[in-house]
Design brief:
The complex is a heterodimer. Chain A has one domain: Rossmann fold. Chain A is 36% helix and 22% strand. Chain A contains ten helices and eleven strands. In chain A, helix 3 crosses helix 4 and helix 7 crosses helix 8. Chain A is globular and about 55 Å long. The termini of chain A are far apart. By secondary structure, chain B is mainly α. Helix content of chain B is 79%, strand content 0%. Classes of the chains: A alpha/beta, B mainly alpha. At the A-B interface, helix 3 of A face helix 1 and helix 4 of B.
Chain lengths: 290, 244
């Protein structure tokens, strides 16, 4: 239904992904963010490998949205380093290479679907053919002429997503894109995320539904502004000996020690801290198993 | 900042307004209704001849200030501003795009209110009707520009509504409607000399009475223009791409 199997896809992907597969698309180091006088992110460090779907999971209020806002460069950051595609987050060049979907659909209710997409295309300077491509890709063809305000919540969310797909960004930052969607649509959306990742796009997808974790290549488990885990799904389950991510999450809280096993290739592109901690947490995990 | 992005924003704002016919109707008609009401109140006196030009300055100015200041706040609340600022849209594109869209509406609104005051309410204009129209348009654009400036500072609906008494009311009180500006106490007169609405009211009254030269009036229009440009520039500088 998402019509993307016949989608030729973005043409400039191959060349643009100079770091594809070998480095980190997003790197944060000792990130501190304060909102409303309280620390929301407190010395967070992470690396998101490129060309993967990375799930950002955690309860409401754990700092997921603040982290995503920092990555797209609309959040005031107190201290720390945050880089996307090798450039400081929010750099002028990144504004056309990173797509961002906010939690609430950030589109104009008093414009039609096509008018919305057409405006964001002009802002981005993407080719005119992109309008039809993203409308088709998000399966909005049948409602393209309708006012967004008259659409259902799920459809409005897809308009917001369609706008983020304009210009075929190399990194997509999606804040709870599947919230409130029926299961069929949710599966379709994850199918589309997978195809985008196969084409080389890096996706950071937040969710508070632990169930969605198994669709991701890697997981970032967040709680109270810090990482509980930065690992593959399999890795998180192994370290905690849990059968599902929900239980793993609880065990990681009990254990009081995060599971930060970043892949080696990410450690090369990122801070050395990851490599060091990866090995130490691995031994810790093995000790615990004995 | 690029012309293409600015104009795309203008087109988008006008597209939004077009889908809201009631707003268009209110925007175009309300100032004329208010001028008509004032004319009616003073039917049996000469007062309307004196204050009519000031009313042309006042009502479009207030209406445009309110509409514009709320429009950009809506963008902030709906999350679209955050999205736009994560995209390659310049802050100037955003503010100027809005200014052009609402400026266009202000031109239509002014044309209607000037025509209504002169041909329906019988306001006597001794000077050039074109100069009158020119001053009135500049004045409505001033309302737009100040509204954009105010909304760059406002974080909530409550704040933006209070910018109206803060920014608009003193200009009305000191603009020479209640008491001629040269009769204001020392200090207040100097302040009123600097307020942009004073230029608009002075110029409209001068055109109505044909008491000053065209150059004198053009100078007032230029001063209002400087305030418009200044507000738009300050408004786009103070707009923040990153928020706390």
């Amino acid at each position: 239904m998402m019509n993307s199997s016949d989608d030729p896809g973005p043409t400039h992907h191959g060349g643009a992904h100079a770091v594809g597969g070998s480095g980190a698309a997003i790197i944060a180091e000792d990130l501190h963010v304060v909102r409303g006088g309280a620390p929301v992110l407190d010395g967070l460090s992470l690396a998101v490998p490129s060309g993967m779907i990375v799930g950002l999971l955690g309860p409401s209020g754990s700092g997921k949205t603040t982290l995503m806002r920092s990555i797209v460069g609309v959040q005031v950051v107190k201290s720390g380093r945050i880089e996307v595609l090798g450039l400081p987050a929010g750099s002028r060049d990144l504004r056309r290479r990173v797509g961002y979907v906010t939690q609430q659909a950030s589109v104009y209710d008093d414009l039609t679907v096509r008018q919305n997409i057409s405006y964001f295309r002009s802002v981005l300077g993407a080719p005119a053919s992109d309008i039809d491509r993203v409308i088709e890709r998000t399966d909005l063809g049948s409602v393209a002429g309708r006012l967004v305000g008259s659409l259902s919540g799920g459809q409005r969310g897809r308009v917001s997503l369609a706008a983020a797909l304009l210009g075929a960004p190399e990194v997509l930052v999606l804040d709870e894109p599947t919230v409130g969607l029926d299961p069929v649509l949710r599966v379709e959306l994850w199918g589309m995320f997978r195809r985008l990742a196969d084409e080389g796009t890096t996706l950071l997808v937040s969710s508070h539904v632990m169930d969605e974790a198994k669709r991701c290549d890697r997981l970032l488990l967040m709680r109270d502004g810090a990482l509980l885990a930065d690992d593959t799904v399999q890795g998180v389950l192994e370290v905690t000996g849990a059968d599902d991510v929900e239980t793993a999450f609880l065990r990681l809280i009990d254990r009081g020690q995060p599971d930060l096993r970043s892949p080696d290739d990410v450690a090369h592109g990122g801070p050395g801290r990851h490599a060091a901690e990866a090995s130490s947490s691995q031994t810790a995990a093995e000790e615990e198993k004995r | 900042m690029t012309p293409a992005r600015t104009l795309a924003t203008t087109g988008r704002v006008l597209g939004q307004i077009r889908h809201d016919p009631r707003t268009v109707g209110l925007l175009l008609v309300v100032p004329s209704l208010l001028v008509g009401l004032v004319a009616w109140i003073f039917t049996d006196t000469d007062v309307f001849a004196d204050i009519g030009p000031a009313m042309i300055a006042l009502f479009p100015f207030i209406v445009m200030f309110l509409v514009t200041s709320i429009a950009t706040l809506r963008e902030r609340r709906s999350g679209t501003l955050e999205r736009l600022f994560s995209m390659p849209l310049g802050k100037g594109d955003f503010i100027l795009g809005y200014a052009l869209a609402f400026g266009l509406l202000a031109v239509f609104q002014t044309a209607i209110v000037v025509s209504f005051a002169v041909w329906v309410c019988g306001l006597e204009i001794e000077g050039s009707i074109w100069l009158l129209f020119g001053v009135a348009v500049a004045d409505a654009l001033l309302g737009t520009a100040l509204g954009l400036l105010a909304s760059a500072f406002a974080r909530t609906e409550f704040q933006v509504v209070q910018f109206m008494p803060l920014i608009v009311f003193p200009q009305i009180l000191l603009g020479g409607i209640f008491i001629p500006r040269d009769q204001l106490p020392a200090g207040l007169e100097e302040i009123s000399d600097w307020l942009p609405l004073s230029y608009a009211i002075d110029a409209l009254q001068a055109v109505a009475a044909d008491s000053e030269s065209a150059e004198w009036i053009m100078l007032r229009i230029l001063a209002i223009g400087a305030w418009i440009v200044g507000s738009i520039v300050v408004g786009s500088i103070t707009l923040r791409r990153r928020t706390p």
